[in-house]
Amino acid sequence: MIETSGVDHVVLHTGNVERAKKFYTEVLGMTVYRENDRQVFLHAGTQGVALFKKDGGPLSTGNDLNHLALNVAGGTYESLKAELERHGVAVSGRPGDDHCIYFQDPDGHRLQLMFRR
């Protein structure tokens, strides 16, 4: 049996690699460790997010079963929400949990911030 030890990276498709890279580095604080004109690999702590250029056809994004949940090192609901809104990002909750932070990246991928209260 193969014994996995964690997730290396998750791939998200984007229509604009540079725009997506800017969002993930400047708004979410990820760091680039490899890139070319069609893809960018980012570190988010010990995990990775890869942004791949998608050619043709619409992106399928934005629903609860298709989202990326990110741990954050610190902050409160209020401070994290304010930081996203400072960057022009609309924040929403989910039914029954108004302190859940959901938002979308520039390509419409649904993202969630996970923090300890």
Describe this structure as you would to a colleague.
The chain is an alpha/beta fold. It has a single domain, classed as 2,3-Dihydroxybiphenyl 1,2-Dioxygenase, domain 1, CATH 3.10.180. It is 18% helix and 38% strand. The protein is built from two helices and eight strands, in the order E-H-E-E-E-E-H-E-E-E. The strands form two sheets. The protein has a four-stranded mixed β-sheet with strand order 1-4-3-2, with helices on one face. A four-stranded mixed β-sheet has the order 5-8-7-6, with helices on one face. The N and C termini lie far apart (38 Å). The relative contact order is 0.21.
Briefly summarize what is shown.
The protein is of the alpha/beta class. It is built from two helices and eight strands. Strand 2 (31-35) and strand 3 form a beta hairpin.
Q: The biggest beta sheet, please?
A: 4 strands, mixed
CATH topology: 2,3-Dihydroxybiphenyl 1,2-Dioxygenase, domain 1
Give the spatial strand order of the biggest sheet: 1-4-3-2
Shape: globular
Specify the structural class. Answer: alpha/beta
Strand content: 35-45%
Number of helices: 2
CATH superfamily: 2,3-Dihydroxybiphenyl 1,2-Dioxygenase, domain 1
CATH architecture: Roll
- CATH level-1 class: Alpha Beta
What is the radius of gyration?
A: 15 Å
- Average pLDDT, rounded to a whole number, is 85
Helix-residue proportion: 10-25%
Total individual domains: 1
Number of strands: 8
- List SSEs in N-to-C order: EHEEEEHEEE
Distance between the termini: 38 Å
Low-pLDDT runs: none
